[in-house]
Amino acid sequence: MPNSVSSFSLRMLRSYFSKTTLLLLGLFVCFYLTGCEVFTNANQTTFDPKGPVAAEQQKLFMLTLWVCTFIMVAVVAALFYVIIRYRHRPGKNDDEIPVQSHGNPLIEISLIALSVLLLIIIAVPTYTATVFSYNVPPEYEADVLEVTAFGYQWWWSFEYPELGIVTANELVIPAGRAVRVNVRSRDVVHSFWVPKLAGKRDMIPNRNNDLWFLADEPGEFHGQCAEFCGESHANMLFRVFAKDAADFETWVKRHQEPGKTPEQGLALEGKNLFQAKGCVQCHNVTEVAPGGILGPDLTHFGSRTTVAAAILPKTDENLARWIRDPESLKPGNLMTDGIKDQNLTEADIERLVAFLQSLK
Ligand code: CUA
Fold it and tell me: Is the CB of 233 under 6 A from ligand 1?
């Protein structure tokens, strides 16, 4: 044994840090240094908080990162000190074992005390940030907007109980006002996450859970289910649109009014087809056929910007792609079964697209 320890030479150390290792290490440092810039431009970065809850969570992450970096540097430094201090040297008798010691109360108690201190430094802010993410601060409480978010495989329903609005996959909120999101699930566990605003919060079947957030400025934010929930978990996206007070009022008024339904042309043919082909069994379109709850509410679908839980921009082509072959875009989704025996022709799909786009 002594031999294998003492034969650990500087040469071995050098071979450990081969050119490849150094290259990888260099790349890592480059990614780390430039990373912040790259990550802040991404839609789902947590390094670019746009509201107080996300900012608090980022602060906590950075604190934890620095504490862990300190531990890593200290441990690696101690390791290198020992490797170099006790290395093999020419002319040194390797059978000579350095003085062995056992039990050093001062070092042991100091290490325990330091570990406890570091844990407290992380634990206290973790606790306060967790509590903060649940409770709307008193200064925002009077003006808070209540939303209930339901997770489905694999899409989102957003209900505004005070406003009497139901929408899907796109959550519209007023900028500068706190939003309390009561998260629920209709099937399996999902997790509500808008990286630039707040998250993540598990949506658990038969259990209430909630979070709050606030968007400092108007803007568009990307959301994503953050809990594996089946084969199309990765396709369970949503958008949050923060609007200024006037735009939000306009949006609310329009969505409280009955939806527009087509009275002529291709869109009217699409409406008839929508009823004839049984789409109404799953989808609610209040003015046409209310009641469907298995799929997203489509009452004001035409005013949305995305399709299929925000995986595609809502263009005629993408809408047609989705209706033609939903399985290829979102494997395992319920609509695949719904349309498989409907024998939709390309002309039918065109009619349905016209109808859906007209639902403003
Ligand atoms: Cu829902 Cu992952």
Answer: yes
Does the beta carbon of 298 sit less than 6 angstroms from any atom of ligand 1?
Answer: no
Q: Atom 1 (ligand 1): residue with closest C-alpha?
A: 190
Q: For 296-334, write each residue's pLDDT tens digit.
A: 999 999 999 999 999 999 999 999 999 999 999 999 999
What is the phi/psi pair of residue 326, to 5°?
-60, -30
Q: Which atom of ligand 1 is closest in space to residue 228's alpha carbon? A: 2
Measure 301 CA to ligand 1 centroid, in angstroms.
Answer: 22
Cα 94 to its chain centre, rounded Å, is 56
Q: pTM, whole model, 2 decimals?
A: 0.85
SS3 assignment, position 47: coil
pLDDT, tens only, 102-135? 888 999 999 999 999 999 999 999 999 999 999 9
Q: How far is the CA of 270 from the centre of ligand 1 (A)?
A: 31
Strand, helix or coil for residue 68: helix
206 CB burial (10 A radius; 0-12, 13-18, 19+): exposed
| Residue 276 to residue 260: CA distance in whole angstroms | 19
* Distance from residue 154's CA to the centre of ligand 1 (Å): 6
Please give the number of the atom of ligand 1 that sits closest to the Cα of 188: 1
Q: How remote is the CA of residue 261 from the centroid of ligand 1, in Å? A: 32
176: left (phi over 0), alpha (psi -120 to 50) or beta: left
Q: Is 229 in the pocket of ligand 1 (CB under 6 A)?
A: yes
Place of tokens 């200024």: 244
Cα angle at 256 between 169 and 147, to 5 degrees? Answer: 45
Q: How far is the CA of 346 from the centre of ligand 1 (A)?
A: 32
**Residue 118: HSE in the Cβ half-sphere, 13 Å Cα cutoff:** 16
Q: Which residues pair with 240 in a beta bridge?
A: 171, 221
Contact between 260 and 288 (Cβ < 8 Å):
no
